[in-house]
């Protein structure tokens, strides 16, 4: 029930405003200020709340401040918009051995490049057709076109910017910006090369078999977990799954790396990376990963 608490707090705020005699203009200003404050509190609780309050209290506070579906939509939007800066940061540093690409055969970047000239031409045409006196409509449409271009390029670069990662005894499996599963290598029961292709879909596929993060219909590895692992997805509730098939450009290399990490974990526990822990406190997870 706590996830629908905004149905109580929102009307309560409206009644308080009416009782104070606020007009529509004051209400809009106070509403915008409250929304900014709420967003700031949500961001603070999301970044550090579980460390200070515990997971259960942090989730309860977040549900009180904003509905989970709205939170997931905002987080997904932020992850997509942060893709271009993250891609630039990746270009400034050398590739790392613990990263595993999976974008071979994907068509998103080619499609985005093909659509980009049409979007630029459309924006220029609309700008020229509007009268010079329509300043604010021109600004609004210009902002929308820039936003659309950024979203298109970010969507196309997601798979290249967010590869699978294996470090510090933890395997992170990605499906672009929006799908992520983190699991300790000690909880991986088996990894097997199991190539499969079905259609041209990219994203999460749930059918009768194991969950699949496909790229242009392709998966290459099947992982089995000793306990259900948490798979994050953009709008729906996180899934807890015991098997996951993923696409990997070099599956043999990832299998060898996982086996080596499992052996290392059994013989020598990994220490904490304090620099990465500090980044996780100060920045979103994707940006911290790009900087680490």
Largest beta-sheet details: 9 strands, mixed
Share of helix, binned: 40-55%
* Strands, total number: 9
Elements, N to C (H/E): HHHHHEHHEEEEEEEEHHH
Number of domains: 3
Average of pLDDT: 78
Output the keywords.
292 residues; alpha+beta; 9-stranded mixed sheet; 9 strands; globular
Would you give an account of this structure?
The chain has helices at 6-19, 24-53, 55-65, 68-81, 83-91, 108-129, 135-161, 251-267, 274-282, 285-291; strands spanning 99-100, 164-167, 170-175, 179-184, 188-197, 203-205, 211-214, 218-232, 239-246. Strands 1, 2, 3, 4, 5, 6, 7, 8 and 9 form a nine-stranded mixed beta sheet that branches. A hairpin with a 3-residue loop joins strand 3 and strand 4 (179-184). Helix 9 (274-282) packs antiparallel against helix 10. The chain is an alpha+beta fold. It is built from ten helices and nine strands. The two termini are 39 Å apart. Helices cover 55% and strands 20% of the residues.
Topology:
Layout: H1 6-19, H2 24-53, H3 55-65, H4 68-81, H5 83-91, E1 99-100, H6 108-129, H7 135-161, E2 164-167, E3 170-175, E4 179-184, E5 188-197, E6 203-205, E7 211-214, E8 218-232, E9 239-246, H8 251-267, H9 274-282, H10 285-291
Parallel strand pairs: 7-9
Antiparallel strand pairs: 1-2, 2-3, 3-4, 4-8, 5-8, 6-7, 8-9
Helix pairs in contact: 2-3, 5-7, 5-10, 6-7, 9-10
């Amino acid at each position: 029930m706590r996830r629908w608490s905004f149905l109580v707090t929102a009307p309560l705020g409206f009644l308080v405003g009416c009782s104070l005699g606020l007009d529509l203009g004051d209400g809009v200003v106070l509403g915008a200020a409250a929304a900014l404050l709420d967003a700031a509190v949500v961001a603070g609780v999301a970044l550090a709340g579980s460390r200070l309050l515990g997971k259960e209290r942090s989730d309860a506070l977040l549900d009180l401040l904003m509905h989970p579906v709205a939170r997931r939509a905002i987080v997904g939007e932020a992850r997509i918009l942060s893709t271009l800066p993250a891609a630039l940061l990746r270009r400034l540093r050398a590739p790392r051995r613990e990263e595993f690409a999976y974008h071979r055969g994907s068509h998103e970047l080619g499609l985005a490049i093909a659509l980009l000239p049409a979007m630029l031409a459309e924006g220029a045409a609309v700008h020229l057709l509007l009268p010079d006196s329509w300043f604010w409509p021109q600004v609004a449409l210009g902002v929308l076109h820039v936003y659309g271009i950024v979203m298109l390029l970010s969507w196309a670069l997601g798979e290249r910017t967010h590869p699978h990662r294996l470090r510090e005894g933890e395997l992170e499996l990605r499906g672009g910006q929006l799908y992520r599963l983190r699991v300790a290598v000690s909880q991986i029961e088996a990894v097997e090369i199991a190539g499969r292709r079905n259609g041209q879909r990219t994203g999460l596929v749930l059918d009768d078999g194991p969950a699949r993060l496909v790229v242009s219909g392709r998966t290459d590895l099947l992982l089995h977990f000793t306990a259900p692992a948490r798979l994050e997805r953009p709008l729906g509730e996180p899934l807890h799954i015991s098997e996951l098939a993923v696409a990997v450009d070099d599956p043999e290399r990832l299998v060898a790396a996982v086996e080596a990490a499992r052996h290392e974990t059994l013989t020598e526990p990994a220490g904490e990376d304090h620099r990465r822990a500090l980044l996780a406190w100060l920045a979103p997870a994707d940006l911290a990963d790009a900087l680490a």
